[in-house]
Amino acid sequence: MIGELCKCCVNDRSVSGIKFDETGTCSYCSEYYRYEDKLNDFDCLEKLWMERINTYKGKGPYDAIMGISGGKDSTYVLYQLVNTYKLKVLAVSVDNGFLNDWSKDRIASITSELGVEHRYITYPEELLKKLYVSSIKAVASPCIACSYMIYMGSISYAAELGIPMMIHGRSPAQMLKYFSSEKSPDMVIPFLFSSLKHINEVNLDNTYKDVYDSFKRIFPVEFMDDLTPLYPDFKGKQPVEFMPYFVYHKYNETEMVDFLEKHMKWKRPDNYELMSHYDCDAHDAGGYLYEIAEGRPHIMPELSVAVRQGLISRDEAIKTLYRSQMSSLPEKSMNALSKYVGLDKDFLQEIARGVAERKRAALANIKRKEI
Question: Which of 6, 50, 174, 236 has its Cβ near the most Cβ atoms within 10 Å?
Fold first, then answer.
């Protein structure tokens, strides 16, 4: 059940790492508004971006590695890297076991049209199953393990090939939903703060240490045991810089989709909606289990970012939030997840309810301390 909302956005107390002040404002709003000017000074951000482009271009067999799923964000970023910034890019996709035919067809078409080399990064199926089961038991969703695997796998591959930067296309809503200078539950926030510095002020060794420390703080020990072997080993060389394209550039989903349909053969899906995902067969199942565990739609923190950025009114965000609640089991997606990880659908939901109980107990303890 959705709880009392922040007076400024649509977060409630179920959001990881959140605190509320005496006015009813959540800590993620306070942190965002603290950095708002810096996050929206795109003249300055463009200079920071170009510092990195000018530093790394021509320094490896490819200028950058770029993860691509076939969706709007990664397609748009890849187009800009190739055509606007004239970078030699190696496009990669991590085959997570749920990458569907829609995505694979898009990836092949996009990279061919842009003349970009593309490779798949693969892992043994048994390793993927182990990671997903650990992730589900820890947070009720396979998506955390998948995100970690995609980021760390791509960074490790870039390091192996001597590519100096990895550029990704996470949207601001995805990047900023747990934005905090405190102990954020988002494992890649240290990369974001690093991106806001001039390149000569960045110590990538320290950034990666902060990232790894955040993993240890956020996840159970047994989950860390599974994740640690995937962490990149730079073997004493310069670490790969993990660069968020949409920290440095304005993001407007509608304009991007229109741009892609005008300048490329890319077409939006028939069932297209804003802030949706179409590349992963397990995505809806992950969202459903997460909703059981958290008691609210997983999109809540992302909607809150959109409210802070003035992309949507708070009233409209509230309507979207309630409309996003899953009223029924996403059978097809749950079947795909159940079959892959080897756990019955009912058991997966039971695990999510167990996570919910732990969450409720933790929240009750926090409230007792606040009184």
Answer: 6
Please state, in angstroms and rounded to a whole number, the distance separating the CA atoms of residues 96 and 111: 19
Nearest Cα residue to 106 out of 267, 314, 221, 239: 267
By CB atoms closer than 10 A (0-12, 13-18, 19+), residue 224 is middle
In 3D, which of 254, 260, 261, 258 has the Cα closest to residue 311? 254
Give, in order, the Cα–Cα distances in Å from 220 to each of 136, 296, 371: 12, 23, 28
Instruction: Estimate the share of the chain in helix, then strand, then coil, as percent rounded to the nearest 5.
Output: 55, 5, 35
- Helix or strand (DSSP H, E) at 120: strand 117-121
**Digit-coded pLDDT (tens) for 25-82:** 999 999 999 999 999 999 999 999 999 999 999 999 999 999 999 889 999 999 999 9
Helix (H, G, I), strand (E, B) or coil at 244: strand
**What is the DSSP secondary-structure string of 172-220?**
HHHHHTT--SS--S-TTHHHHHHHTS-GGG--HHHHHHHHHHHHHHHS-
> What does the DSSP 8-state code read for residue 280?
B
Burial (CB count <10 Å: 0-12, 13-18, 19+), residue 315: exposed
Question: Amino acid letter at 193?
Answer: F
Q: How many CB atoms are closer than 10 A to CB 134? A: 21
Looking up tokens 């076939």 gives 70
Residue 86's CB is within 10 A of a number of other CB atoms, namely 10
Sheet containing 64-67, strands listed edge to edge, beginning at the edge strand earlier in sequence:
117-121, 89-94, 64-67, 165-168, 241-244
pTM: 0.92
The helix/strand/coil state of 20 is strand
> Minimal CA–CA distance to 276: which of 28, 102, 20?
102
How is residue 305 written in tokens? 């970012």
Q: What is the pLDDT of residues 106-139, one digit of tens each?
A: 999 999 999 999 999 999 999 999 999 999 998 8
Closest Cα to residue 337, out of 174, 150, 146? 146
Task: Decide if 251 contacts 305 (C-beta within 8 A).
Answer: no
